[in-house]
């Protein structure tokens, strides 16, 4: 046998052309046999993958075989049900349990990309609903709010999140990289085939087309996020007693709409726009119209004559929006609401604004600065906060030029360095999630789903949950003069709790400064209500551990004759 093989090798070495000819014939024959087997028999697929349409649905987690570029192959029966699901949902559609999604193959081509974007984010978190493809004229935009472009990393969610954070109802994507926001769609709905461009930062998803928008209606998750474009919805209020003094500028508008009144008051440089049926009133928040007592919105539920979905109030009850104009209540001639400064002399005491991370410290600093007119300081330095206006961030925490000092520190030595403290406590379940979002998404950003589902979240809870308890226990034990404020009480009863805080700081509470707080209370330090987890990230073991820490803190507070933790801290 060895001798025969040696003769075979010597033959082809002498005649290499014959060798390569033989090799080419061998490969061709093998290819033909392989292709023939693909048409004669069924592809080799797992038991769960075989004939899913005939089974009435897909087995959980089953993945369909590749379908080819031109038509459905033999691995998938082209039933009406299956093809209709593919046309409706693109590459992702629900399995027979209604929850799991099975992945369809890649069809290829522009038409297939249009199919691939239909379920996009609509199925995730119900944060937005896809409503269709719309024509967009560069001379007369379909969505006329803000816009931004990113020709490398544009995604559907990024566009939605940016529009939602600015209070718009609609988000539209175009050319695969352009994002437009608006409160109404001012264009015609067209065929889905016109929106056929893939998102630059999200393969397999559609971001409009050439002069065509893929439009989503945003589902804001929080009442406090209600806006109309750039204007913040403040609520329904009773007509003030002296209207001409409270809201000095008035205009009659036959075709009243929210944007007309808001634009009118913005042009007149007033921070409040009040809609009263066919009348638009503009003014400042003052003691005559302080915006403290909101009424039931049903009292203002009169539709705008030029707006299908919005209320324009009545002559007796006004719908009020806050415009982008900076507030100047003009209660005192030399005061501007947003003016802040350092203390005129060095403070004789160091007062801490202490909290566990994620408990609302940045928001509390914003409120204190508005209410007092003085900068707050920090035990740390955060450049991003300094750039957002917290000028005390750069000062050394012992400088004595700031009204109070932010700190997350615990431990006897660090706590005893302060003469007094405002201790801000928040529900640990909310605080942990807020700090996790900050850690992985910035001060007003969000952690990605991969972080919540990965090892980061369990490890974070394991390390930070004990700290939530020990932080409060240490300040109660070692603090010299501690004022406890619950974050939830501050949100619910802002002026009472803020008054307590300002009194500890030794500053007289002035009505005009409280009006500043009323007008600017959210600032730019609140996360959008758009992204909301559809599941509870806390496991049973996590809840059991955290509940034990809550009971420890509750007992410590009551042991010092203080109010215990709010009822909504537990049970989960």
Automatic annotation (TrEMBL):
The record's annotation in InterPro entries points to: P-loop_NTPase, Sialate-O-sulfotransferase, WSC_carb-bd
Q: Which residues form the WSC domain?
A: 127-219, 230-324
- Name the Pfam families for this protein: WSC (PF01822)
Task: Tell whether Ribosomal protein is among the UniProt keywords.
Answer: no
Swiss-Prot/TrEMBL keywords: Repeat
Record has Nucleotide-binding as a keyword: no
Q: What is the similarity comment for this entry?
A: Belongs to the WSCD family.
Which protein, by its recorded name, is this? WSC domain containing 2
């Amino acid at each position: 046998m060895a001798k025969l093989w040696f003769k075979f090798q010597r033959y082809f070495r002498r005649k290499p052309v014959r060798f390569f000819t033989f090799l080419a014939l061998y490969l061709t024959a093998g290819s033909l046999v392989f292709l023939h087997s693909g048409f004669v028999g069924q592809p080799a697929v797992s038991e769960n993958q075989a004939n899913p349409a005939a089974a009435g649905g897909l087995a959980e987690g089953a993945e369909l075989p590749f379908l080819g570029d031109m038509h459905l192959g033999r691995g998938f029966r082209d039933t009406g049900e299956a093809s209709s699901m593919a046309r409706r949902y693109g590459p992702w559609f629900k399995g027979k349990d209604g929850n799991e999604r099975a992945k369809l193959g890649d069809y290829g081509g522009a038409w297939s990309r249009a199919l691939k974007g239909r379920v996009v984010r609509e199925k995730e978190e119900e944060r937005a609903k896809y409503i269709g493809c719309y024509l967009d004229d560069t001379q007369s935009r379909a969505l006329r709010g803000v816009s931004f472009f990113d020709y490398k990393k544009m995604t559907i969610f990024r566009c939605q999140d940016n529009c939602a954070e600015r209070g718009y109802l609609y988000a539209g994507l175009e050319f695969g990289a352009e994002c437009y926001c608006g409160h109404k769609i001012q264009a015609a709905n067209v065929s889905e085939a016109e929106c056929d461009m893939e998102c630059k930062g999200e393969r397999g998803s559609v971001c409009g087309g050439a002069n065509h928008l893929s439009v989503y209606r945003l589902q804001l998750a929080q009442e406090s996020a209600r806006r109309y474009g750039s204007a913040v919805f403040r609520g329904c209020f009773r007509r003030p007693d002296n209207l001409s003094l409270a809201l000095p500028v008035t205009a009659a508008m036959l075709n009243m709409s929210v944007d007309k009144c808001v634009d009118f008051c913005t042009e007149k440089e007033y921070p409040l726009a009040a809609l009263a049926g066919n009348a638009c009133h503009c003014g400042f928040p003052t003691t005559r119209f302080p915006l403290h007592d909101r009424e039931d919105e049903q009292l203002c539920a009169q539709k705008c004559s030029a707006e299908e979905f919005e209320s324009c109030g009545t002559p007796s009850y006004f719908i009020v929006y806050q415009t982008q104009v900076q507030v100047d209540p003009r209660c005192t001639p030399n005061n501007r609401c947003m003016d802040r400064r350092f203390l005129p002399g060095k403070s004789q005491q160091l007062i801490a604004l202490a909290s566990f991370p994620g408990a609302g410290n940045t928001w509390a600093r914003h409120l204190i600065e508005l209410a007092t007119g003085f900068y707050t300081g920090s035990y740390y330095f955060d450049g991003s906060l300094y750039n957002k206006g917290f000028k005390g961030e750069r000062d050394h925490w012992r400088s004595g030029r700031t009204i109070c000092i932010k700190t997350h520190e615990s431990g006897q030595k660090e706590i005893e360095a302060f003469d007094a403290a405002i201790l801000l406590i928040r529900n640990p379940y909310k605080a942990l999630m807020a700090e996790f979002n900050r850690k992985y998404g910035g001060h007003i950003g969000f952690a990605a789903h991969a972080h919540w589902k990965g090892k980061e979240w369990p490890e974070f809870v394991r390390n930070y949950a004990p700290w939530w308890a020990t932080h409060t226990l240490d300040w109660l034990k070692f603090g010299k003069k501690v004022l406890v404020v619950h974050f939830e009480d501050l949100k619910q009863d802002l002026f009472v709790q803020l008054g307590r805080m300002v009194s500890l700081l030794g500053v007289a509470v002035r009505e005009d400064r409280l009006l500043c707080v009323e007008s600017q209370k959210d600032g730019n330090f609140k996360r959008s209500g758009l992204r909301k987890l559809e599941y509870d990230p806390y496991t049973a073991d996590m809840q059991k551990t955290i509940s034990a820490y809550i009971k420890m803190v509750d007992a410590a507070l009551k042991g010092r004759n203080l109010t215990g933790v709010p009822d909504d801290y537990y049970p989960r």
